[in-house]
Specification:
This protein has about 350 residues and is an all-alpha fold. It contains 12 helices and no strands.
Length: about 350
């Protein structure tokens, strides 16, 4: 078996029949410009989310730490994609095989971390809601271990191709979309993400059914209009969570499967645009946060308006006061009994937390 570690990038691109140009074309300008625009927006919005979680004590709970880690993964995705944009098009031909693997490994690691985070958030919501808690009782130590585990898995999957699961020593299995990757690795990565999505779908559907039944049982403690509003909001949230993931990820995953399983299929026409679409999932989270979560929206306003605030306003956090969970529970407690009250709080918190965990 002959390995081609010292061959040029053009050698592998020619084998995969993927055109690599040494001059800038209109398509290259469009892709790079669009990619850089998306990258800047991803970086800015996710820094905003991380700052909001750090600054607002209302968000100092396990679910928000996971959301912060998701923002960190999406921030890393934005940086990785910006790096890709400065090493694509005519710049690709100048790369060594090691530089090419670094370029692709950064993208794979960041996107994998983002997807695994989404699943971790779904599982955390499932555990919290089914035990009728406002927030998970998971300790900070366990949250840190979970976050470390997520990144270790993501880094490992990003390094796998450069560690041997490539076509450097078997050019007959080279992918068309990623000419140094083995087609079997692309199939593995696509199937892994599809399985993750399946788990997320099952978890969120189970949460929805559970809350629907719980809401029905507690209908004697709330008005019919309020009950319908709760269910409707939850339905909207679940649709946004799953819909965003499906729209952003499905085209790219299908293309990866076609590249891995169908040698004669034309997968190169739209590959760059589908990658941009997958990257867009990384800035959809902050948009949804600000739209669906009032506390997050108010914190965003405080951060963005900080330079405009006077000395008195800055001390008051833009005039916004964030209560602790105990204070919120005390405000909503009524004569209907502790159990009914707690159930109502969980329903409300379910909406808020599911809103925040959208991707």
């Amino acid at each position: 078996m002959v390995c081609h570690d010292n061959e040029s990038i053009k050698f592998f691109y020619d084998i995969s029949r993927k055109n690599i140009s040494d001059t800038w074309r209109t398509k290259d300008y469009v892709v790079v410009s669009l990619g850089l625009l998306v990258s800047v927006f991803v970086i800015f919005t996710n820094i905003l989310v991380m700052l909001a979680i750090f600054m607002n004590r209302r968000f100092h709970y396990p679910i928000y730490y996971l959301l912060g880690n998701l923002a960190a993964a999406d921030l890393f995705a934005g940086i990785s994609y910006m790096y890709l944009m400065f090493h694509t098009g005519p710049w690709t031909i100048k790369l060594s095989t090691s530089q090419w693997f670094i370029r692709q490994g950064l993208i794979d690691t960041s996107l994998t971390a983002s997807v695994i985070n989404l699943m971790a958030i779904a599982l955390e919501r499932h555990q919290t809601i089914f035990t009728m808690q406002l927030h998970s009782k998971m300790s900070n130590h366990r949250v840190v271990l979970l976050i470390i585990g997520i990144w270790l898995i993501a880094i490992l999957l990003g390094l796998v191709p450069s560690m041997g699961w490539s076509c450097l020593c078997n050019t007959s299995v080279c992918s068309n979309m990623a000419p140094l990757y083995s087609r079997s690795y692309l199939v593995f990565w696509a199937v892994l993400n599809l399985l993750t999505f399946t788990v997320m779908l099952a978890v969120y559907m189970r949460i929805f059914v559970y809350v629907l039944r719980k809401n029905h049982r507690m209908s004697q403690h709330t008005s019919q209009v309020k009950q319908k509003e709760t269910v409707l909001n939850l339905m909207k949230t679940v649709v946004m969570i799953l819909g965003c993931f499906v729209v952003c990820w499905t085209p790219g995953l299908v293309l990866l499967l076609l590249d891995g399983l169908c040698e004669s299929c034309d997968v190169l026409t739209y590959e760059k645009y589908f990658l941009v679409l997958a990257e867009c999932n990384s800035f959809m989270n902050p948009i949804i946060y600000s739209y669906r979560d009032k506390d997050m929206r108010d914190t965003f306003k405080h951060i963005l308006c900080f330079p405009c605030l006077g000395p008195q306003q800055t001390g008051e956090f833009s005039g916004v006061h964030f209560n602790t969970v105990k204070q919120e529970a005390r405000k909503t407690r009524d004569a209907d009994g502790e159990q009914a009250n707690r159930g109502q709080l969980v329903l409300k918190e379910t909406e808020n937390m599911l809103d925040s965990s959208e991707s």
